[in-house]
């Protein structure tokens, strides 16, 4: 029997597979030959098998260094399922008591154990080093090897200590494995582990079954995600959030909406975390809500969607987290919600860290922003980031390819970019180059006297976004490269130099527009924000009738966003109507009956299956502040004093009061208005709203003119709504 057949036969015996995937076989042969091996393989490509099979076929015990206790437990359980012998695989980490550790050591010394999983922290403990020196080690496997690099998405300082410890225990062949590594990170790993001469096996990072989409993150994100999950009922999914607090809150919101969801983050006790993970694996829960920072050791092949509530800190993080979906080759939907504000928050968190770390962090965030905002094929951008070229023009499985933007000729723009980079002797980053082109006189530009250069302001005809798009797309097209060692300095490639000599056609697409979340108002006066445009239109007609009958402007009855929410969740009782944003008990009682009657009739006639009420558990806490504000106003406390007491800006207090009156609660702020405003002003603004078809603030400011401040208009609008509507 040939060696080839022998290895495939062993695969069948131990794991039940008939064939190897990708370059698994070549990797295993290399490990068995005693060579150092570096494996770059995307999530779901079958990395674990690359060290599990050689471990079973080699004399001695393979030491697998892994950062995740959950993943170790997972893999040990899986190995035991493949074998009749429980002692075949063990893990050693902080979760074990002394009796359990003694059992592990006994199995290893007796030769039963082929794989020993250890956390890097456990590996460095003196008693463990002494024990491991006594045993025969077949090889070392370093899993999640990107943790070694500061440029990786999950840098762990203890990973830097692996090499010296291994040398102390005893030199044996090494296999390092990672699912995400840019060329820079790959070099870092090999250098740190002392395996520069290792044979490198790099699989394609293209996961063709994954669909990538970036959505605007707005105030209705919770509802949008709930709607998505309900439309994918019974499928497994993961939602990633930035903070532990948000994880807990959002898991509660999902549960309140009848979704089987559990949370998972590093702050939970390990028992609870393990229980939640097992419930997800056993399909007792459909959704896990987890922190981005905490890598989940979940090896579930049929995760059908990964949603990023918050955008991750790096593209490596994003790639690895999205990679948890569709591992079985089936459907995998990857949807991330993006607003630039989130990245600014992440940048703030870095303050106080060493400058070098801040610089690296900022570069990684910029790459993430570029990916989110680009209108180029997302697959192309991701693969380019990992040093791989994707040659298809349209992948047909990302939002940008399914809704392509028109291409525009940018030959002259690229020439201008290359001229600036060349004049600056290739010593600056994209941001600096854009500032030179647009003539933005920053203090840095002034200090280098670059504002005196002829090229300064040479691209003022185009905006910052266009220049950023040109640079990003020139990088993907290979006209430029980024010197990652120096925090992303732009360099002109060989192809770029040829372009300077002989310019050719270069087409780009403009970046996607993302507004800041607080500027994003719900769609007004159009049915596009509502799920059911027919019902929305019927309710607008009803509102108009009521407005004529009651002689109040339509917006006094219900605002457009409230109608949109009704056309999404179909409230059919007055109690349910009170769950709608902008509808309180008073308003529901006063105007609601005709609306719920109309909705119930529409639901029955069209056999509509209603989503459950979107109850948000955190509403209770928010209402405490509102109750306190109403009580203070009843006691005639000056509004600026109320704001001061609660640490609110005055405009933030007005936001809260507006929500209170729009929801149907009657309040009287005359005592304050008469104190701070001219009587004629109050009357003029009040009359304006009486005759107006809209409560829109911008229109009111334009119409009333500069004699009236925005605060005055808002205050009188509160008085008007309270008196007319409530």
Secondary structure topology:
Layout: H1 3-15, H2 24-32, E1 37-40, H3 49-57, E2 61-65, H4 69-82, E3 89-92, H5 98-109, E4 115-118, H6 120-123, H7 126-132, E5 137-142, H8 162-169, E6 174-178, H9 183-192, E7 199-202, E8 210-216, H10 221-231, E9 236-241, H11 244-256, E10 261-264, H12 270-281, E11 287-291, E12 303-308, H13 315-322, E13 332-338, H14 340-349, H15 355-373, H16 378-385, H17 399-402, E14 408-409, H18 411-423, H19 430-438, H20 443-447, H21 464-477, E15 480-483, E16 489-492, H22 494-501, E17 507-508, H23 533-550, H24 554-557, H25 560-569, H26 574-577, H27 585-605, H28 619-634, H29 639-645, H30 650-662, H31 670-676, H32 679-691, H33 697-704, H34 710-725
Parallel strand pairs: 1-6, 1-7, 2-4, 2-5, 3-4, 5-6, 8-13, 9-11, 9-12, 10-11, 12-13
Antiparallel strand pairs: 14-17, 15-16
Helix pairs in contact: 2-3, 14-15, 18-19, 19-21, 23-25, 23-27, 30-34, 32-34
């Amino acid at each position: 029997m040939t060696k080839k057949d022998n290895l495939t036969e062993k695969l069948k015996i131990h794991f039940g597979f008939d064939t190897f995937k990708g370059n698994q076989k070549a990797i295993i042969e290399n490990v068995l030959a005693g060579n150092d091996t570096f494996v770059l393989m995307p999530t779901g490509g079958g990395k674990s098998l690359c060290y599990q099979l050689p471990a079973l076929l080699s004399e001695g015990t393979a030491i697998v260094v892994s950062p995740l206790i959950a993943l170790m437990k997972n893999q040990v359980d899986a190995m035991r399922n493949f074998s009749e012998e429980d002692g075949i695989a063990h893990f050693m980490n902080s979760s074990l008591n002394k009796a359990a550790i003694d059992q592990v050591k006994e199995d290893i010394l007796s030769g039963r154990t082929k794989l020993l999983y250890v956390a890097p922290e456990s590996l460095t403990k003196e008693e463990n080093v002494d024990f491991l020196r006594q045993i025969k080690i077949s090889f070392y496997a370093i899993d999640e090897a990107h943790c070694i690099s500061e440029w990786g998405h999950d840098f762990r300082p203890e990973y830097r200590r692996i090499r010296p410890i291994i040398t102390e225990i005893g030199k044996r062949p090494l296999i390092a494995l990672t699912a995400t590594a840019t060329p820079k990170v790959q070099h870092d790993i090999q250098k740190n582990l002392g395996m520069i001469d290792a044979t490198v096996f790099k699989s394609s990072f293209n996961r063709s079954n994954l669909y990538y989409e970036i959505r605007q993150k707005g105030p209705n994100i919770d509802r949008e995600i709930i709607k998505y999950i309900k439309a994918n009922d019974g499928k497994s999914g993961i939602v990633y959030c930035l903070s532990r607090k948000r994880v807990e809150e959002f898991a509660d919101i999902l549960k309140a909406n009848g979704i089987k969801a559990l949370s998972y983050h590093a702050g939970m006790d390990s028992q609870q975390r393990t229980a939640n993970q097992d419930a997800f694996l056993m399909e007792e829960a459909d959704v896990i809500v987890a922190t981005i920072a905490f890598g989940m050791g979940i090896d579930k092949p049929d995760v059908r969607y990964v949603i990023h509530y918050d955008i991750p800190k790096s593209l490596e993080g994003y790639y690895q987290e999205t990679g948890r979906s569709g591992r079985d080759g089936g459907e995998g939907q990857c949807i991330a919600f993006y607003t630039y504000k989130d990245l600014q928050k992440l940048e703030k968190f870095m303050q106080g860290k060493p400058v070098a770390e801040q610089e690296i962090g900022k570069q990684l965030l910029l790459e993430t922003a570029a990916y989110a905002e680009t209108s180029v094929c997302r697959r192309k951008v991701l693969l380019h980031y990992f040093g791989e070229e994707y040659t298809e023009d349209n992948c047909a499985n990302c939002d940008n390819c399914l809704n392509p933007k028109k291409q525009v000729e940018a030959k002259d723009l690229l020439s201008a970019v290359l001229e600036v980079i060349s004049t600056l002797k290739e010593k600056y980053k994209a941001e600096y180059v854009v500032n030179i082109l647009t003539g933005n006189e920053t203090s840095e530009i002034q200090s280098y006297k670059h504002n005196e250069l002829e090229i300064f302001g040479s691209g003022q005809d185009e905006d910052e976004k266009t220049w950023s798009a040109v640079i990003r797309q020139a990088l993907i097209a290979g006209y430029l490269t980024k010197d990652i060692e120096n925090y992303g300095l732009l360099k002109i490639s060989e192809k770029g130099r040829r372009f300077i000599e002989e310019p050719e056609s270069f087409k780009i697409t403009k970046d996607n527009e993302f507004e800041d979340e607080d500027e994003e108002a719900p769609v007004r006066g159009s049915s596009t924000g509502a799920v059911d445009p027919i019902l929305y239109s019927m309710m607008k007609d009803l509102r108009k009738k009521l407005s004529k009958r009651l002689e109040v402007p339509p917006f006094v009855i219900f605002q457009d966003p409230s109608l949109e929410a009704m056309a999404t969740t179909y409230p059919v009782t007055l109690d349910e109507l009170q769950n709608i944003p902008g509808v309180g008990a008073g308003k529901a009682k006063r105007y609601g009956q005709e609306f719920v009657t109309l909705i119930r009739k529409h639901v029955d006639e069209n056999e509509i299956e209603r989503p459950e009420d979107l109850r948000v558990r955190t509403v209770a806490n928010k209402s405490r502040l509102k109750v306190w504000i109403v009580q203070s106003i009843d006691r005639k406390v000056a509004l600026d004093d109320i704001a001061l007491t609660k640490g609110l800006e005055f405009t933030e207090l007005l936001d809260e009061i507006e929500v209170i009156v729009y929801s149907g609660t009657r309040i009287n702020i005359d005592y304050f208005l008469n104190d701070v405003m001219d009587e004629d002003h109050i009357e003029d603004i009040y009359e304006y709203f009486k005759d107006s078809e809209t409560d829109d603030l911008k229109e009111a400011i334009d119409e009333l003119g500069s004699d009236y401040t925005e605060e005055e208009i808002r205050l009188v609008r509160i008085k008007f709504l309270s008196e007319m509507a409530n």
